[in-house]
Fold this sequence. Notes:
This protein is an alpha/beta fold. It is built from 11 helices and 16 strands. It has one domain: Aldolase class I (TIM Barrel, Alpha-Beta Barrel).
Amino acid sequence: xxxxxxxxxxxxxxxxxxxxxxxxxxxxxxxxxxxxxxxxxxxxxxxxxxxxxxxxxxxxxxxxxxxxxxxxxxxxxxxxxxxxxxxxxxxxxxxxxxxxxxxxxxxxxxxxxxxxxxxxxxxxxxxxxxxxxxxxxxxxxxxxxxxxxxxxxxxxxxxxxxxxxxxxxxxxxxxxxxxxxxxxxxxxxxxxxxxxxxxxxxxxxxxxxxxxxxxxxxxxxxxxxxxxxxxxxxxxxxxxxxxxxxxxxxxxxxxxxxxxxxxxxxxxxxxxxxxxxxxxxxxxxxxxxxxxxxxxxxxxxxxxxxxxxxxxxxxxxxxxxxxxxxxxxxxxxxx
Length: 335
Ligand SMILES: Cc1cc2nc3c(=O)[nH]c(=O)nc-3n(C[C@H](O)[C@H](O)[C@H](O)COP(=O)(O)O)c2cc1C
């Protein structure tokens, strides 16, 4: 059974516990061998991918006792643009029933700083690292992807689905033709694996996936956040400074699961793997996405509630495989 995602009272109750009362994290053990997989030529220790924007530049949770980057197959870094961006005015996040709204606005120090100062601090022996390339114009995507191509990063995710910036982002991602133009342009400037992150805020995600595959993407990430809004009834104004934000967490899981299944129908014949994501908080959620056709599964918002959720998800998936006599995730995919 999945834990129910927090409401405010549950979150607050957890935070109010005095530190001494919290149990010490269990001794670290590597993910079970049955969870290892090959994703676009990268060796993943687990199908879990930590999602862009939820783990900073890979350092965010390493300060939490019991957390290890080695528990996951890969980590997607925060969305990175050509120049530094300060992001949106506050409020940038707001907890909603079974999820949260965010409108960070792609705050990041710019690709040159990420490549020159941040990538050298990452420990590539722990996990695979995936850049998240974002932009307002096709030229900016080309600049960011070229600079990551000339770096030790393992793969590049193209974020054409950010709903929180005024220009670019989802403007590209909601048009299949524009999405394909971005992918085609990025494909020309890198030989690294390209993963295109699709928007759920569009009419025909299958057409979008098909055109991105034809334009040369190697993998797909399904889905980014869904646009949403909250209003403060005391002021009559939107809570989020950007007026709208991206909704994530368990509230979007059924939608994300269907989109993953729909995209899998298009991607499977081409051998294009999917990182299924949107609201995964436990092993059962992750298994649903794997059964829907995802090869790997993303965990984002759940980390805010439980930074130590990944080993639990790993354990649950491994137990599920063992109970069905599967020696590997590939056997589950083939069933
Ligand atoms: C605070 C926050 C910041 C995010 N920033 C990015 C980003 O920079 N680039 C991106 O592609 N997705 C970003 N996302 C979307 C997540 O990577 C993920 O696709 C989405 O939240 C759905 O997964 P989840 O429900 O497990 O969080 C962000 C999500 C959150 C909650």
